[in-house]
Design brief:
Elements lengths: L11 E9 L2 E8 L11 H8 L9 H25 L6 H23 L3 H8 L5 E7 L7 E7 L5 H15 L9 H19 L3 H16 L23 E8 L5 E5 L2 E7 L13 H11 L3 H7 L7 H6 L3 H20 L11 H10 L10 H21 L1 E7 L4 E5 L2
Antiparallel strand pairs: 1-2, 1-4, 3-4, 5-6, 5-8, 6-7, 8-9
Length: about 400
């Protein structure tokens, strides 16, 4: 595509519409499928990620962050070059690193009072880029101008020039000559590296938007998914529930729901007791806050059996193993943090790992912020249960909360 030949393109091209709804539009189109809508307004992207920017007004940490993300792009590309198909997470890793780089670029523009889309327009205005017209998939935008580099660089060369441009950014200040030109040069290198990396700019921006807003922006409860809304009551997780957890002299913990014992008696199953016998609290937190818990559905026998596909794919044994494995993994990290006793937040890295754990299951629709709420509230109840060797766990799906009451 860089030379105008359909055989020379990796399949993606930068597209610019000078004026759609009063703002410039820049995005990538997946040329192999003209109906694939992966376009996003850069002005809308910059505005939407604004609330996720919790960094100080100083530009230096932002510059360091951007430089680090470029290093992440190079690391992911190096692994792909070295391991080939064995590096199965290449595409997702590269998309994430390019997305995080775009986030820091937007944060830098915010501090320098520069237009992100304006800088992109300058970057593609030179002779290194060529254009063609295409039908736009943006509402009220009939025509888009697809713009792409004239020549496709080798991956190593593109990454080296991107790294060099990132290093030059470290020298810029909050004011001074050459800042805008340095940013335009970096964007030019960014676009060329993006093209040869074989990922879509639209997907890069969208996935970053979902990740960052899902992590830092509290969701509207009315907009969150309800996974069993269209099922009969006997196949729904209860909207309000109280589950009693008690411990016998034997050390075994028991669960009782609506006067009936459920599940198997549990011990910690470890030499040094750590309270894991009470870990079902976390499944109840998932049910109340995320509206998801194949484990709890199994315990109270309210699987969605009327839909064979849902029953097998979302409520079946594999989904149960995923939730149990995820719960055990989080617990192992929580032990190092005194079970979040002094924490009001969960690390971004942990939340991203959780997202990888549940990819392909319905709960993947829940934002990371909601996972954080489930973990923090769940562990607050767990600490109470552990301290008292039991108690009543109170869940409310309407308010997406979980609480505790002593026996």
């Amino acid at each position: 595509m860089a030379t105008g030949s359909p055989n020379s393109s990796p399949g993606y091209a930068l597209s610019v519409t000078p004026d759609i709804m009063g703002v410039p539009w820049i995005g990538f189109l997946k040329m192999a499928d003209p109906l694939y809508q992966s376009t996003i307004l850069l002005s809308e992207y910059a505005q939407a990620v604004g609330p996720t920017d919790r960094m100080k007004a100083d530009i230096q940490p932002v510059l360091f962050g951007l430089f680090g993300e470029v290093g992440g792009i190079m690391t992911a590309a190096k692994k792909h070059h070295r391991e080939g198909k064995a590096f199965v997470g290449y595409r997702r890793a590269v998309e994430e690193e390019f997305g995080d780089t775009l986030w820091y670029l937007a944060a830098l523009c915010r501090r320098l009072d520069l237009s992100l889309e304006g800088l992109f327009e300058q970057a593609i205005a030179g002779e290194d880029y060529t254009s063609m017209l295409a039908a736009s998939d943006v509402e009220n935008g009939a025509i888009a101008r697809i713009t792409m580099p004239r020549q496709v660089a080798k991956l190593d060369d593109a990454l080296l020039t991107l790294g060099d441009a990132a290093a030059q950014l470290l020298a810029i200040q909050s004011s001074g000559t050459g800042t805008e030109a340095t940013l335009v040069r970096f964007i030019d290198r960014y676009l060329k590296a993006l093209q040869v990396s074989g990922v879509s700019f639209g997907e890069v921006a969208r996935s970053n938007l979902k990740k960052t807003r899902g992590r830092f922006v509290s969701p509207e409860l009315s907009e969150l998914p309800l996974f069993d809304l269209n099922f009969e009551e006997e196949e729904q997780l209860p909207y309000e529930f109280e589950i009693e957890i008690s411990q016998r002299e034997s050390g075994l913990s028991y669960l009782r729901y609506n006067g009936v014992f459920i599940g198997d008696p549990l011990t910690d199953n470890i030499i040094d007791e750590d309270g894991y016998r009470f870990h079902d609290v976390f499944h109840f937190a998932h049910a109340a806050i995320l509206h998801w818990s194949p484990v709890m559905r199994s315990l109270i026998k309210q699987k969605r059996k009327s839909d064979k596909v849902i029953d097998q794919a979302q409520d079946g044994g594999r989904a149960i193993v995923v939730e149990e494995g995820l719960t055990a993994w989080i617990f192992s990290r929580a032990k190092e943090l005194d079970f979040f006793a002094s924490n009001e937040t969960v690390s971004f890295d942990m939340l991203k790992t959780i997202a990888d754990f549940v990819r392909g299951y319905e709960v993947d629709q829940c934002p990371l912020n909601l996972w954080e709420r489930a973990i923090i509230q769940g562990y607050a109840v767990f600490r109470e249960v552990k301290a008292n060797n039991g108690g009543v766990v109170i869940g409310n799906r309407n308010t997406r909360t979980i609480g505790y009451r002593p026996l």
